[in-house]
Amino acid sequence: MDIKRKNNSYTRISIYWKCQLIGWSLVSIYWAYTVYIRDNYGIIYTLLNYILDISIGIFLTHMYRQFALKAKWSSFPIKQLLIRLVPTILLLAVLYMLINNLKWHAYWTLIAGEDKKLLESIMYWDPILLTGLRLMSIWILAYHLYHYYQKEVITAKENVKLSLITKQAQLDNLSAQLNPHFLFNSLNSIKSLVIENPNAARRAIDLLSDLLRSSLYEKDKDLISVKEEVSLVKDYIELEKMRFEERLQLEITVDETLNNFKIPTLSIQLLVENAIKHGIDTKINGGIVHLTIEKNSTTIKIIVKNPGTLTDTKEASGLGLKNLKERLAIQYNGKATFSLTTLNKETVGAIITLPIKHDENI
């Protein structure tokens, strides 16, 4: 099997050689036609001349390629490369002229039997020198443009790959911060129940276990469906109600057509947690947390309202909300927004606005 693969790799013709053979074969057709019609070379000598023309073109350009690869010319900036290419093209054109003139001199003196002086034959430049300049310029420019294009494509792919890796690393880092943040707040809630109500504490531990299990299952996903996120929020509210009892209420209004829409994992849970910590917990009588998820033609809004005011600057600049803002910026390329505002004298609203159409793979 390995021997067959090696043999196939040797017999397979590379793109470079395919282009060389096809390109110079097509170019040399004109000269074959010229010597056959104008100079009456005959079929055999015309074919021989055709093969020699192909060989000369491939020989000169391949020698240039070997030199350019060794000198690493393709790595030079365009200006530096052009400075080197101009004299090189002139040199190759002169060599093209000299080799072709020697070929024709050999034909006219050895085969046709005419008396041709070697110096005059070699110095004959019009139109062969101009042809050489044209052909070498086209070949060399095409060669370097191809490599320049390939380098740009590779660079672009590497940049995209690096960008994706960077974004994923950022999201992983943010998720690593978010999970302990959520865990510590939940454990604080359970701690207060251990002595006061052991049965409620056991139920709270079960709920926390379920929440953590869901978090672990979704840890490799940056996005989660609205339905799953709302279910997680309900479990979290049940956990917190064991501490707040009737002081904490939750009202949910969700457009059912959005159940399968993907949103950042634990984003709503974070807003609800924030509403309880800075709203419900500060009120003697507690209050109601309102969760609304709605859409219009281009965006989806997630709104969490809670009683309170934005007098506490820590509420707006805490780790959780800062974390959320960074996640939105990364996952939606700046097309998603988050705001925390005072809706009226006694109500604070946290609003996430997401574009309906976005690339979830970014």
Automatic annotation (TrEMBL):
What protein name does the entry list?
Answer: Sensor histidine kinase
Signal peptide start and end residues: none
Q: Does the keyword Membrane apply?
A: yes
Q: Which segments constitute the Signal transduction histidine kinase internal region domain? A: 169-248
One Pfam family from the record: His_kinase
What are the GO cellular component annotations?
Answer: membrane
- Keyword check for Transferase, yes or no: yes
InterPro entries documented for this protein: Bact_2-comp_sensor_kinase (IPR050640), HATPase_C_sf (IPR036890), Sig_transdc_His_kin_internal (IPR010559)
Q: Which GO terms describe its molecular function?
A: phosphorelay sensor kinase activity
Annotated membrane-spanning segments are 21-37, 43-60, 81-99, 128-146
What is the species listed in this Swiss-Prot or TrEMBL entry? Polaribacter filamentus
Q: Which Gene3D superfamilies match?
A: Histidine kinase-like ATPase, C-terminal domain
Q: Which UniProt keywords apply?
A: Kinase, Membrane, Transferase, Transmembrane, Transmembrane helix
User: Please, which domain of life does this record's source organism belong to?
Assistant: Bacteria
